[in-house]
Amino acid sequence: MPDFGYTDYGVVLGTLGVSVLIGVYYGFFAKQKTNEDLLLGGKSMGIAPIAASMLVTYLSAVTVLGYPAEVYGYGIMIFTNTLVFVCFVPLSVYFFMTVFYHMQLTSVYEYLEYRFHSKFVRMFASFIFILQMTVFMGVCLFAPSIALSSFMGLELWHSVIGLGLCATIYTSMGGLKAVVWTDVFQLFMMLGGMFAIIIKGFIASGGIMQAFEKAGEHGRLEFFNFTVDPFMRHNTLNFFLGTGFSIFTMFGTHQPQVQRYCSLPSLKHAIGATAFSIPLNIFTIGLCLLSGIVIFSTYAGCDPKALGIITRVDAIVPYFVKHELGYIPGMMGLFTSCVFSASLSTLSSGLNSLAAVTWEDFLKEIKWFRDLKPNVQAHLIRLLAIMYGLLSIVLAFAAKGMGSILSATITALGALSGPLGAVFAMGILMPFINKIGATCGILTGFLTMIWITVNSFILDKSHIHLPFSSAECPVDTLELYNATSSIHAMDGSVEWPEKLYTLSYILYPFAGGMITIIVASIVSVITGGIAQAKRVEDKYLHPLIRPRDKLTLLANNNNNNDDVKEMKYMSKDSLGQYTRVPSEPLSPPPNYTASKETQTPGYYYYAHDTESVTPPPPYINLTTTSGTDNHVASPRPILYKLPSFPTTTTVPGPTLAQIQTAQFSDHA
Questions:
Q1: Quick check: is 222 in a domain?
Q2: Do residue 408 and residue 556 come from a single domain?
Q3: Which of 74, 213, 449, 588 is 20 to 30 A distant from 631 in Cα terms?
Q4: Residue among 401, 366, 353 at smallest CA distance from 54
């Protein structure tokens, strides 16, 4: 059996060395001096590297090892995840990215405070993200140990500590730019490793057609299953609801993604990077699934799982590389680098995002930290990345007992992404959700999904995987391993209430999201959310949801030029009149006068004359075209759009009753 040679060690060390050198370059030569440089790349990143980084942020070693193992053990239905991704990413871009990009938030959770007027909602959402990402990174650090123990004979702690320190070093030194460019390099390493597996697998299987025929004969090519069963591990409806909800709510709002598209110079660039990442995702996941097909077909008649040589399906990819590619110098090193690169990309992205969220949502709220010099703040953010790197190393040792690495990862992400994504969806699309409803909803969703997740791991119910055969093994091999001709795992039936804990892990985001939305909606209605909806500022809602009665303020400046200013909605008084104030202070204060709206012929705008107010506030004069002043009980400027009236001053203007029932403009 081939050993891990000097060439293999050279490839691995070269991969790690290049990753660290990129961090050194951006840390010491292309210095990152400010928080914006470290966390948003100075807003000068290009479309292609950001698209690659968007992709590999979630393509960890879990993907490289887990997706082929999923096809090997359960079939190719997991590809439905990618189809759902293609369908829901454009929706997420339209509803979320178009809103959040213009806000240019370092931490996306700032939005929650502005929208719900609640620091608690913001900080609790940040806490959920921190918990989610640290657990996710722990699993991603554990996954490479499977390959390393098989190839190099290293213990778990060797792999975990080595990878953890490497990612921590280049992330803390080089910031987002180092993370993005190492992601690009690591993507090429991942692709190289998967291409090697696919080419060798097709050769060992007898060709492309033969590989697919063997996989089809053994049930590995079932793409769709329309059974309606929320407790079934995988079916098409579960993917559509679970993955669909997760992608829709999280792709445009998850902190790593927000940092990446906000690092681009324009929204057009951000949308372009996302569009570029979609075919990249299809291509990369397609390679992973193809790897699973060729690996299964290689061992279809004499399977190492059936023989008992491997005990976990997750170990099949390292087994294949070692036994089928190990005789080629450097190939085991290339695959190990592939797994390392996949882990490093996820770790570095997570560390950078965790540092950003911790600084913006927690430390920056403290005056002492806020008053530090920019370069000191940058050093503090580097220290935060180091601390989270060490925490991920600790959590990696707990990931060993989580079962299949793919399902464990999706569970860790999905259980918390439901409530987290739902609170953003409610903020953007449901203006009647108030801070009390949002608080109750996210708390209920979070606690419920934690309860279900913990109990599901305690129950540890196994799922039926597809059969593995040893029917074509030589007799001496069967005798050596004392194998049977076919083997598959059985799962016992579970009764209520324990059956609740067998809910498909794919549905965790949907379940958590629906619980959050339902509770938040009920509480908001009870606590006056419908009446409060009219006070939500337009910029915190999606344009489709914003009120249609927008008003425009025509302000005369010192040069007598008309400046159009958008007005914020303030209140609706008992007379049905809307009052607004400028979205930003006007300097110098304008002289509000009646003006004709040229874009809508036949309509006039009537505004308060704020100079020489008699009587003083809260009464403000309303000047009509006839010059008549009427006192209106309102402390803020009111602007009305009225039907056409003669422009000659000899004809009286509209009466106050007409003004009170006037239409409102829609040109803001």
A1: yes
A2: no
A3: 588
A4: 353
Question: CA–CA separation, 450 vs 399, rounded Å?
Answer: 16
Give 646: exposed, middle or buried? Use CB within 10 Å, 0-12, 13-18, 19+: exposed
3-state SS class at 108 = coil
Mean pLDDT along residues 72-87: 93
3-state DSSP assignment of residue 45: coil
Residue 281 lies in a domain: yes
How many Cβ atoms from other residues are within 10 Å of residue 615's Cβ?
9
> Per this entry, what is the length of the chain?
668
Q: What region, left, alpha or beta, does residue 660 occupy, with left being phi > 0 and alpha being psi -120 to 50 degrees?
A: alpha
3-state secondary structure 235-262: CHHHHHHHHHHHHHHHCCCCHHHHHHHH
Structural domain that includes position 595: 552-660
Q: Is 508 within 8 Å of 420 (Cβ atoms)?
A: no
pLDDT of residue 269: 87
Out of 417, 445, 474, pick the residue that ends a domain: 417
Q: How far is CA 127 from the centre of its chain?
A: 15
Phi, psi of 632 (to 5 degrees): -115, 130
C-alpha 45/C-alpha 177 separation (Å) is: 8
| Predicted pLDDT of residue 403 | 52
Query: Mean pLDDT, to the nearest integer, of 576-592?
Result: 36
Q: How many CA atoms lie within 13 A of 404 on its CB side?
A: 23
Same domain, 80 and 223: yes
Residue 496 lies in a domain: no
- Measured in degrees and rounded to the nearest 5, phi and psi for residue 339 equal -70, -40
Q: Which of 352, 382, 417 is the last residue of a domain?
A: 417
- Number of structural domains in the chain: 2
pLDDT in tens, 104-125: 888 899 999 999 999 999 999 9
Query: What angle is formed at CA 571 by the lines to CA 567 and CA 572, rounded to 5 degrees?
Result: 115
547 domain-assigned: no
What confidence score (pLDDT) does residue 605 get? Answer: 38
Task: Identify the pLDDT of residue 553.
Answer: 33
According to the model, what pLDDT value does residue 328 have?
Answer: 85
pTM of full prediction above 0.85: no
Q: How far apart are CA 396 and CA 394, in angstroms?
A: 5
